[in-house]
Please model this.
Amino acid sequence: MKRTQEEAAKTRQDLLDAALQVFSQQGYQAARLQDIAKAAGVTRGAIYHHFGSKAELFNTLMEEASAQESGAVEAAIAEGGSLVEIMARIMTYSLALLQESYRLRQVFELSMFKAGTDPELHAVRLKRAEQTELLVCNTAAIMAQGIASGELRPGLDPHILARAFIAYQNGVATLWLSNRQAFSLSEQAADFADIFMRGLVAG
Model:
């Protein structure tokens, strides 16, 4: 039984690896299940058994990337410090992770540039939008604490701050992905975070 479970887990991982490879090379819309199955060395039936559809393969890759990013955020929070220090560290760790993790980078590029407008991904997009809005709300709650404690400038809208925090981080990531030779994201992540947070600190 244990061997069967291990084999099933390996097949599932092989399919995810193959899906990411094929999606990255061909784009989501052009990718075919038979191409993914061939890359993984299995039949199309194995895809249906483990995931059910191409869209679910895509969704699983997104969920894994989100979990990886959450790990970086948790590590940044665990180190403690002031709210400003923690928020700057969250941005620093998240940006640096994008350069350090080839897999996360592949998923980010897939999501941003290679997913297309395939109707199959409608449910996945809705789910991602809900997750993003939850992230905005959670970040806004932290920003509100910073304003209330006097660490952040008074009179700012926590939700606008939260959206700006997320948009700035995504913008830096996209800028780096457009030309990775221009600068080192991992080396300059702390500087980007410092520039952003300095604009929020109470004088």
